[in-house]
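Holo model, pyridoxal-5'-phosphate. Inputs:
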Amino acid sequence: MEEKGTPREVISAQLIGYRALDTPHTRILSSMCTIPHQIAEEAKRLFAASNLGDPAVFAGAAKIEQLLIESLGDLLHCKTASGWMTSGGTESNLQAIRAAKKRKKTEKPNIVVPESAHFSFYKICDILGLEMRTVPYAPGKYIADTGRMAELIDKNTIAVSAVAGSTEYGTIDDIRTIAKITRETDTYLHVDAAFGGFVIPFLKNPVPFDFAVEGVDSVSLDPHKMGLGTIPGGCLLFREEEDVKALRVSTPYLISKEQTTLTGTRPGADAAAAYAVITYLGREGFRDIVAGCMENTRRLTAGLSAFGYEKVLDPVLNLTVFRDFAVPDGWMVSHTGRHELRFVLMPHVTRDVVEAFLADIAEQKQK
Ligand SMILES: *Cc1c(COP(=O)(O)O)cnc(C)c1O
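Output:
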């Protein structure tokens, strides 16, 4: 840090220069985040100084968070669900598994997760001292083999986590069958819908993946992914108030007297942003956005197939995966753990972007 400050214009020019180093969204086919909706950015600015870590002081931001959770509880078929805003899917998953761990005391706790589980579960098992048991994919599919899952659950299993919208393939585990298994074994069930939570409910024929399925104890979904909110912003919802209460700690130096969240100081800004955008768009607005993303996913899949590239599976959500091929320069495309190419068709990946990408491939083929 310099002794004297720097003029505003200088900093502004600097920031613009650094911002230009970020890849423009029109070239990003790898990300699950997107450009926040304008109304979300406005709300974020308005609540920039609000700390949700002390809700008694920032009552307006706290009210917004409560309305946001109510609205999402309604979307996920449990109007009485409780929860809060997190920094994203990782923190939500961690908190869900912490709650599960409070329910069941055992010496050698383990969790059972599908092969498609997000890498956050490695961190979670490390932090909480858990053994991670991985359920392989069902043959020919990219969802958990529920028969194998049942075999891996034992008396030391504190939770099962299923995925609704997997990060690499966009697939949805068979939540109903998994919930049947967890109910029979009295095991906590978390559904990680970080990506799918703002997609699946808006599809034409959504499969049950949320609290509509008896036995689902918690669901995470991220406004900063398909919710068009600002970064960072995740949400975690619990069916039972008891699981929330199990996470309580007292907070003597604050005006508010207890906390169940992982982080202390929390941004009211991203809660306001998420609330603004879901209220503004409504289900209708999200249905339109999801329909557009699905249409673009079909177009890209068909376009790449027409070039002779091989798709790995029929897209379930707005994500399509192909056997590896040489991607033209200037495009951000990432790989799965099995080195396949993975394309995420977020709202910023418009039809024009898809056509530009396909045109680049056509040109590359001619060379
Ligand atoms: C993105 C993702 C996460 C992690 O979310 P962060 O916001 O990056 O912490 C967790 N689970 C799934 C299924 C995801 O797609």
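The longest strand covers residues 157-163. Residues 32, 88-90, 93, 118, 120, 163, 167, 192, 194-195, 222, 234 surround pyridoxal-5'-phosphate (CB under 6 Å).
Archived with the compound record.
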